[in-house]
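Let's inspect a concrete specimen:
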Amino acid sequence: MKELLMGNEAVAMGALAAGVQVVAGYPGTPSSEVLETIAKRNPGHIYVEWSVNEKAGAEVAAGAAYAGARSLVTMKQMGLNVASDPVMCVNYIGVKGGMVVYVCDDPGPISSQTEQDTRSFARYAHIPCFDCDSPEQAFQAVQDAFAFSEEHETPVILRSTTRVCHACADIEVPEIKTPEAPEGFVKDTSRWVIFPKLAYQAKLRVAGREPELAAEFSEYKGNTIEGSGPIGIACGGISYSYVKEAIRGHEDSFTVMKIATPYPFPTDLARQFMLGVEKIICFEELDPYIEDALIYEYGNLSLDIDNFIEGKRTGTVPLGGELSAVEAGRVIEEVTGIGTSILFSEPEGAPDLPVRPPVLCAGCPHRGAFFAVKKAVGKRPAIYSGDIGCYTLGNAAPLDMVDTCLCMGAGITMAQGLDHAMRGAEKEPVCFAFIGDSTFFASGITGTVNAVYNQSDMILCVLDNSTTAMTGHQPHPGMGLTMMGERVEPVDIAKVLEGVGVKWIRMVDPQNLAESKKTVEEAMEEKGVRAIIFKSPCIALEGPGQPLKVDPEKCVGCMACINEIGCTALIPDSGNLTEKGRPKAVIDRALCAGCGLCAQICPTGAIE
């Protein structure tokens, strides 16, 4: 039947229709909904797991594909960096069952540390790549990717981007049938065990097949040439949708080539396109991937046309960030003089949209942990290495408690580097590392072992809120629940720390400011690797308690509650001033979660 599906849901339903049997992944916006949808729609024959990280997920998927099952592993573009170790090997080994690596890029970036273009990774890794331009096309592309993977015994990358992942469309969803059981693993060390000689032969094979696959992709139904106008537009992914919107009403002036399989590049199709137009504009996110491929073919065709190809390389199209239909229309008008209906200007007198930076939720236990450390440290020199998660937001004023943030798990190891570099300095700092419980399991354990082994002097703060909060509250090993709905023994972070050699370990409730502050002070008196587990559930899971209120008779307008912890439920009341004209504090009871942190720091006891 027809369903309204988000792009990621469309990929999930396409995978179900293709007979996927094993699904693994690690949550990361904008990819998370794929695995969650498959788990929710699981007919009962599919194994689904949230892996501890993307590397583990890719290896689970590869093992299943070795046994002949169709497998899917999901991640965002940053996760592909973590998964690149197995992915860069399984491309040489190959697979028996279809294996699709679904990677969601985040142009902007909207919710990532950096922009990355997975198409460039696919070319570097010699892994065939399909690119999604809409939910409808994504539904079909994942099915085509599985078929292609099995036919050529290779893993396949399916790339999407944020706007496709979270757009919605009506899609005809077929009945999901149980696939035949896989053949199973057949021992063959000449195929499944990667040795240097085997790798050398595999490199010749995967690189040498490029012309054959390029010719096949030139015939692939997802790659199209539309129109016959003199101005060529080359695009792929969501940029195709932007272009179609931008040229609406002027289609006769353009010939649009859509690339749905960027690697291997469909050379024959590209040559046909280039020989039929007078000029080309390239629109794509993020790298000038299609543009570079066309420039290469331009040389092979020995064309001699000035300013034939316009795009990111010429500065015509922005080199980074998201594109849009408006931006595509602006470029088209600038290059061709053809005005498009998509261009618009802001109405006169319209105010600027308010800036809304991400902040910790009211009642978030991380706020208490950061504030306790800050108060305990006082004026002593200290460096706070942060990590990837909700607690990255501790960098904002007034907390200002995240000095570094690089990638998942790096907070622990960067604190070690800072310690070794500054040990013995005149103002030797105390080095703190903050990491969440989910991130600790994903990529923090290795760094902790490194700290113990190499005799680092640092304080590890595990902010344990019992969930993977920032990406949607997915389960992790510390929660005692799998994605298959099984209750299992939770992995105890304190026991893990003890097992890898951490001697000084304390657990404290971050909502208890006095106890937390005292624990941090004790940790600073010790040496070596010390660990404090700040354990309190995420407020979004626990739910708010009784909201607090400010007694206006006791409030002196000192603003300590607002200026020190930055809780969004605390605001100055400009309609209620002290004798000296200072606004008193007031609590937004719709936001207040009743954590009580503000009451613990109010010098006059006005919050109750």
Notes: The first helix runs from residue 7 to 17. The domain at 365-542 is CATH 3.40.50.970 (Rossmann fold). The chain has a mean pLDDT of 92. Residues 221 and 260 are 9 Å apart (CA to CA).
